[in-house]
Fold this sequence. Notes:
The complex is a heterodimer.
Chain A: E1 5-9, E2 15-19, E3 35-37, E4 41-45, E5 54-60, H1 61-64, E6 72-77, E7 82-86, E8 92-98, E9 102-109, E10 117-122, E11 124-129
Parallel strand pairs in A: 5-10
Antiparallel strand pairs in A: 1-5, 2-4, 2-7, 3-4, 6-9, 7-8, 8-11, 9-10
Chain B: H1 2-16, E1 52-56, E2 62-64, H2 69-78, H3 82-92, H4 97-104, H5 108-115, E3 117-120, E4 123-126, H6 129-152, H7 167-190, E5 203-204, H8 214-227, E6 245-249, E7 260-264, H9 266-280
Amino acid sequence: xxxxxxxxxxxxxxxxFVSDRVNRKVPEITRGSSLWATSxxxxxxxxxxxxxxxxxxxxxxxxxGKSEPPALDRELETPFRTVExxxxxxxxxxxxxxxxxxxxxxxxxxxxxxxxKIVIGVRSKMSEGI
Amino acid sequence: xxxxxSAWLAREQRRWLRLDHARFQKPRYVExxxxxxxxxxxxxxxxxxxxxxxxxxxSGLSLPFGTDPxxxxxxxxxxxxxxxxxxxxDASFEETESEAVEEENTDLSSVRRxxxxxxxxxxxxxxxxxxxxxxxxxxxxxxxxIGRLREVEPNWRPVPSVYGTGIExxxxxxxNLAFEAQARITELGRVGIGPGxxxxxxxxxxxxxxxxxxxERREINRIGTSTGCHTCGTFDPGTRSGNFxxxxxxxxxLQPLGQRLYPQCLTCSQRQGGAVHGVRR
Lengths: 130, 281
């Protein structure tokens, strides 16, 4: 049974946050990329909101992972054992419970600066759409 | 009994009064009340009976309290009483011998009395009118900057600093507050919170939603092509489509009312997202 969740959205500021519920340190954004990360927060740039929606998929790595190498592969601090995908205005788009306080995250995007499809793979057990 | 009372009072004062309590009390010399000994202008001239500063000349002429002798003499001359005007001019700057001695012995407290005591920032401070004016200007600048800043960052607090006492310290405090708030406004402007330094033309927003219609996109692209991103000034929007990002100012997450639309590049829009997230926390 699939536990992956997905949403199509045109997020404000063409950006989504992947982090635990609190205690996130936002990385500095530089030109020419769509992925920025600190140990507690990952920012993923999306298609500009006035040009269309971006599909975001959140699921287990084994389930949603792709054969090609990920655009980002790193550990994320998850002290509340949750991974959330949220917007700059604080709206939570997707949420998934994870097993440990450090979670392995892999991100696949279909464009280097402005992807309209983002796949986020995590090591977890349960997930829920918001 | 009186002795016991004094001892008790002294002990209570040590317990309850802070060491610098005098700083918060109205100085006694501020109490300027009616005094029957205060001299008046003698009868026989138009200002007879009014209070005077007590400055008299050898001719015995006194001027009303606070009157500029030159101005008074001019006014009298205009009235046509030239002799009286000459008398005033001769008399006004001559000081009696006793006054000269008093000037020489002037202590600091009398100088301060002339400067004036004012209630500034919850405490009585001695200040000249010039110092008071400088404080008012600095304070107005600080309040204006803090007001603008708190529209976007309601939880902003200045960095705690230690200042001395006195009007000059209060002026420094107000100047530093204004500088700090203005620096923060500039810093937020650089990350897209508030119209940036390249902002010129803008459109009124129909609301905080991002349901833009075709003419709004066209107008924002036109403005962006002529003036660039309102935050960084670049003419390259950085988007796949070549459209400028339509930016609400102030950002919807901070102030969803009375917004305007500006053109912004993709990177500045994303930076703004990170900054808005930080400010909202």
